[in-house]
From TrEMBL:
Belongs to the proteasome subunit S1 family. Gene3D superfamilies: Leucine-rich Repeat Variant (1.25.10.10). Residues 945-955, 1126-1137 have a biased composition (Low complexity). This is 26S proteasome regulatory subunit RPN2. SUPFAM superfamilies: ARM repeat. Residues 873-1055 form the 26S proteasome regulatory subunit RPN2 C-terminal domain. It comes from the Eukaryota. GO terms for molecular function: enzyme regulator activity.
Length: 1169
């Protein structure tokens, strides 16, 4: 039947009295509505009257026609309402633009309605603490109304009335007086649904849509809608339905994960990566955790991920007990792996609670103690009750279980992970000392900023490797450090030996303060030693906190208190210890600017992420009372650390700090935004930061606002270059510096080309500190990159070395270049900068370390905090006994793709060579004339006259030696020419050698074997596989310790030797001490030997012996050995050269007495050294 051309006649039937004609008219219009809707639009009143007439039988048909007409009129809200009223006539499965548009509109409406009901019925748990903080800021906010707004200095109001920024916008949260955005629905086009019938119809349509998706197995679409609508009931129903469907269809193999487990993993990934509200995220995780626990054999690693984020130590303890109590070897191995994951992602406070709830790993010994005496039994029983429940004693009867629990406790404490990482870094150390020596030689040590720069470069290069050889070989250079440079140099030992827990006290003994109260060297060295002690025990203060507390309390010097506070903060990170906080607060109240900054920071580190309201009140109050800017800055940073990861819970404090007239507290407010929302990608936080970056009147605040973008977006590094592209060209150098650092923080270790393209022009910026930031950021981005992965690495490394050696470069830029050289080769080239763990959670220590590192702008010793962000990139396979088996796994990539970058080629310093014998021009001419005559005579006569031939040698005279030399040279030249010609001939047949060299990487065979405990980069993990063999991993490799299932436990296993256990740690080197092992200590001995030898006038034997001794020392550890090169050796070499010059006479000649001038000359050499 042909379609309608005009609807005029059909519309006439709508006014007819016969109901059948009306129905016919509606059906005809419905079929051809796309062509005649313009005519029907004029009769909407008649059709609406039919819809509203309850006696009309086909009301739903009238509603459907109305919906289609309103759809063409682009009145989508009215169209959706009538489509919902059409009931079953609205076909969800019918293909068409109308159906797709209305379904999309229904889903949007459903999401808006459900999310609004969820937010109104589920208040935030943090609301209890917010009023307390609001009272703290009441005075500041109240006074702020009378003060000029810091973001708009030329107006008495919050925003100028005619400003573009003042235009009303529903989604513009920047202009909202509160940091919390206020949204009326999902978007401005969503209409509120007041009619109950319409809401029920909407629910029915969405349910029909869900059923259609579930029947087709499209579970993920339903989960996405449920999460966005915040409807957890639908989420639970979908996951259970997937499990039931999988159980009903038994035909499929059960090798892989079930659909329910895949869906829970999908929900988990959405929850962690997309959901931005902290409260709703916790609800989803709690739901997923409950569902996982209902499965007979759940994914324990997914449970561990939920448990860490929910901070549920009871669940973690129960899961570990369940796995261990089964006494199955595989379950024990899984328990070990979960313990490693918990340590990798949990705080010290969280891990401490789990450890307390687990049984002790010691064999039970209560009965012998009780038998010895009743008093002992009475003393020990309460201790056992406090530490663990009485029922745990029964579990400890089994020695096997006791051993397992002991291993789990050692993993949760962290000692096992730290020991493994230390062994890995020591074993695979690839530090290029020639670069370090070049930096040392290029920078003048008497300048404190340059001395500090070399210290940082050495510390970062050798982070965690325990290799302090550079310090031991350069004691004279180390001795040039004064005051705070000495503090920093001593603290560098903590970075180098980070994790060396057992030897830390012995190592730092020469510098640590003595209990007797006697002076033990410089107070700066003592303060630096306490700082170093904290760095060694970073985020692992189990054994160090008591010692640091006692030293900090006993210290009277402000410098020692400064170092002790930093050490306490790093070691006690996130412990939440009220005792340590109170002792720090007491020192803070002495109002000392010198230690106040460190104490304020340490208070934040102790309470890291706790959101402790009482602590915040104390710190805010004192920040307003004190007059020292350094104390205010330390407290501002400390408050930001307390709000780490709190998201919406920090909004009230952020609002108060950002409205404060003090720029230092506004700086703290920006840091609070960065740390509270770190890694979330929150649009709300990004808008706030961008607004302040272009509006605040203080350069420091604008700089940190741009820099903080890196902390918010480090999980989406690709979006940062586009966001800061315009800011990197700002007229303000502080904004340019902030954009450079934001790129470095967010794109660290990625080698992202877009970020490098933005940073390369900034290396030539006219402002010195912008160049400094660009160099540091480039090093962060290029860390662990080689030329195969990124061809620009070689050029950037060359630029860094050039800047360090450039005499005309500014000091700040050279400082940044030396830091960059240390960062790009961090941890012996085995570390990357990781702000998230291998399993995808936030790396708390890394984020905190990076945040405090950015404060080096104000205080250089904070630079050492960057070492907390260095994470080893390795796979360390462990068997069920936590031993390190010797085995290999496979990598399917080319070996050159993830290989170490090549070491720097150092031009060997050539020793004294034979000087070529001088040839006079007259001699050369005479030789040429003689040769010419000889050739002429051979041509003229075949007879050889004996007289001329005998005279020729006499004529040449003393030129015999030169003839021989020239013959040799000419022969060598001819041979080299012949070789080149042969090579050319060969290359014409086989191709040029250069071409072969270029083709070789292309023909490089893909796939190679990797030894256990080797470097494996994050990007390399996807190529790693474990071939069929004895060991199989318990989970997909994510880097770090990886538990292996031994498929052949009966056979003898071969273990890897732990090299670090065979090394004895010596005490730290002290500048000024004369030790036989160091080059600096030997310098004085050599000079004394020179003086003694020179006093023995005419004694050739003593001079020769000394010359031989010095030559031996130089050959073994002097100038020819780059690793041991040191400044004192050069003085000895000069002395040795002079002695050699004295003894150049013939063997039979008589020795002349040594003149007095020579002795004076040697004294001058000593002074120069």
């Amino acid at each position: 039947m042909p379609g309608l051309v005009t609807a005029t006649g059909v519309l006439g039937f709508l006014a007819d009295e016969e109901a059948e004609l009306k129905v016919f008219a509606l059906q005809t219009l419905n079929d051809d509505i796309d062509t005649v809707w313009t005519e029907v639009a004029g009769s909407l009143g008649q059709i609406e009257a039919l819809y509203e007439d309850e006696s009309f039988a086909e009301r739903q048909l009238a509603a459907l026609v109305l919906a289609k007409v309103y759809y063409h009129l682009q009145a989508y809200n009215e169209s959706m309402a009538f489509a919902l009223a059409a009931g079953d006539l609205f076909k969800l499965d019918a293909p068409g633009e109308f159906e797709d548009t209305i379904i999309s509109k229904c889903i949007d409406q459903y999401i808006a309605v459900c999310s609004s009901e969820h937010s109104s019925s589920k208040p935030s748990k943090n609301d209890v603490s917010l009023p307390a903080l609001a009272t703290t800021f009441a005075s500041g906010v109240g006074n702020g109304s009378a003060v000029i707004s810091p973001t708009t200095p030329f107006s008495q109001t919050a925003l100028p009335s005619k400003s573009l920024l003042s235009r009303a916008s529903v989604d513009n949260t920047i202009l909202d007086p509160s940091f919390q955005p206020v949204k009326e629905g999902r978007s401005g086009s969503i209409a509120p649904v007041a009619d109950k019938a319409t809401r029920e119809a909407l629910q029915r349509v969405v349910e029909r849509l869900f059923d259609a998706c579930l029947n087709e197995g499209r579970y993920r679409q339903v989960i996405g809608i449920a999460v966005e609508a915040k409807n957890l009931d639908v989420l639970r129903r979908v996951i259970k339905r997937a499990g039931e469907d999988a159980a009903s269809s038994k035909g499929k193999s059960s090798d892989g994960p079930t659909p329910a487990e895949e869906l829970m993993e999908y929900a988990l990934s959405i929850c962690m990566d997309i959901v931005q509200e902290r409260g709703f995220r916790r609800e989803i995780l709690r739901l997923v955790l409950d569902l996982l626990n209902d499965i007979p054999n759940p994914d324990y690693f997914a449970i561990a991920k939920c448990v860490v984020y929910l901070n549920s130590d009871e669940e973690a303890s129960r899961m570990l007990r369940q796995l261990v109590s089964s006494e199955d070897r595989n379950n024990t191995t899984i328990a070990y792996q979960i313990a490693f994951d918990l340590y990798d992602n949990g705080t010290q406070e969280f891990l401490g609670k789990i450890i307390k709830s687990l049984p002790s790993g010691d064999p039970p010994k209560p009965k012998p103690d009780a038998a010895e005496g009743t008093n002992d039994a009475q003393e020990t029983e309460p201790l056992l009750e406090n530490q663990e429940p009485a029922r745990e004693d029964a579990e400890e009867v089994s020695e096997d279980l006791a051993r397992v629990y002991k291993n789990i406790r050692s993993i949760l404490v962290g000692s096992k992970t730290i020991q493994l990482n230390l062994e890995f870094l020591y074993r695979n150390n690839r530090t290029d000392l020639s670069i370090l020596n070049k930096v040392r030689d290029s920078l003048e040590a008497r300048n404190s900023i340059f001395h500090t720069a070399v210290t940082f470069c050495n510390a970062f290069m050798n982070q965690g490797t325990t290799n302090d050889k550079f310090f031991r070989d350069n004691l004279e250079w180390l001795g040039k450090a004064v005051n705070w440079s000495k503090f920093t140099a001593t603290a560098a030992l903590g970075v180098i030996h980070r994790g060396n827990l057992t030897q830390s006290r012995k190592l730092l003994e020469p510098y640590l303060p003595q209990q007797s109260g006697l002076s033990n060297g410089s107070i700066f060295s003592q303060g630096g030693a306490l700082y170093a002690y904290g760095l060694i025990h970073a985020n692992h203060g189990a054994d160090a906190l008591d010692y640091l507390k006692s030293q900090f309390s006993a210290a009277e010097e402000e410098v020692i208190q400064h170092g002790g506070a930093l050490g306490l903060g790093i070691a006690g990170m996130a412990t939440g210890s009220e005792e340590i906080f109170d002792s720090l607060k007491n020192v803070l109240f002495t109002d000392s600017a010198l230690n106040g900054e460190a104490v304020g920071l340490a208070m934040g580190l102790i309470m890291l992420g706790t959101g402790n309201v009482k602590a915040l009140e104390d710190m805010i109050t004192y920040a307003h009372e004190t007059t020292h800017e350094k104390i205010v800055r330390g407290l501002a940073l400390g408050m930001a650390l307390i709000m780490y990861g709190r998201q919406e819970g920090a909004d009230v404090m952020i609002e108060g700090l950002l409205n404060d007239p003090d720029p230092t507290l506004r700086y703290g407010g920006i840091m609070t935004v960065a740390l509270a929302y770190c890694g979330t990608g929150s649009n709300k936080a990004i808008r706030k930061l961008l607004h302040i970056a272009v509006s605040d009147v203080n350069d420091d605040v604008r700089r940190i606002a741009v820099m903080s973008l890196g902390f918010i977006l480090f999980r989406k590094p690709g979006s940062v270059p586009r966001m800061v592209e315009l800011l990197s060209e700002s007229y303000n150098p502080h904004v340019r510096y902030g954009s450079a650092m934001a790129l470095g923080i967010s794109c660290a270790g990625t080698g992202l080309d877009e970020a490098i393209d933005l940073l390369e022009p900034m290396m030539k910026d006219p402002t010195d500190f912008v160049r400094q930031g660009a160099l540091i950021s480039l090093a962060m981005i290029m860390i662990q990159q080689n030329e195969v992965m990124n061809p620009k690495v070689a050029a950037i490394r060359k630029t860094l070395k050039k800047v360090v050696g450039d005499r005309h470069e500014d000091a700040m830029t050279k400082f940044g270049a030396s830091l960059a050289l240390g960062i790009i080769d961090a941890g012996g080239r085995n570390c990357t900068i990781g702000l998230q763990t291998q399993s995808g959670n936030l790396n708390m220590a890394g984020i905190v370390g990076m945040a405090v590192f950015t404060q080096y702008w104000y205080w250089f010793p904070f630079t050492h905090f960057l070492s907390l962000a260095f994470s080893p990139t390795s796979i360390i396979g462990l068997d069920h006994d936590l031993d390190i088996p010797s085995f290999k796994f496979h990598c399917s990539a080319r070996p050159s793709l993830f290989d170490y970058p090549p070491e720097q080629e150092v031009k060997a310093e050539e020793g004294p060579t034979m000087v070529a014998t001088a040839v006079l021009s007259t001699t050369a001419q005479a030789k040429r004339r003689a040769q010419k005559k000889e050739r002429a005579q051979r041509r003229e006569s075949m007879d050889v006259d004996s007289a001329p031939s005998s005279a020729k040698p006499a004529a040449s005279g003393g030129g015999d030696k030169m003839d021989v030399d020239d013959d040799k040279k000419s022969k060598a030249a001819e041979e080299s020419k012949d070789k080149k010609e042969k090579e050319r001939e060969g290359s014409s047949d086989k191709g040029t050698p250069a071409a072969d060299a270029k083709k070789r990487p292309e023909k490089e065979k893909a796939g190679y074997e990797i030894e256990n405990m080797s470097r494996v980069l994050p990007g390399q993990l996807k190529f790693v596989s474990f071939p069929a063999g004895r060991y199989k991993p318990v989970k997909k490799p994510t880097g770090g310790p990886l538990l292996l299932v031994d498929t052949q436990p009966e056979e003898e296993k071969s273990l890897m030797e732990e090299k670090l256990k065979t090394v004895t740690t010596e005490k730290a080197p002290v500048a000024g001490q004369r030790t036989g092992g160091g080059a600096g200590g030997a310098a004085g001995q050599e000079q004394n030997l020179i003086r003694q030898a020179l006093r023995n006038e005419g004694n050739l034997r003593s001079l020769n012996e000394l010359n031989e001794l010095l030559g031996h020392r130089l050959g073994g550890g002097g100038r020819n050995n780059d690793a041991n090169e040191s400044a004192p050796g050069s003085g000895a070499a000069a002395a040795a050269g002079v002695l050699t010059a004295v003894d150049e006479d013939g063997e039979g000649d008589e020795e002349a007495p040594v003149p007095r001038e020579f002795e004076y000359f040697s004294d001058g050499e000593e002074e120069e050294e």
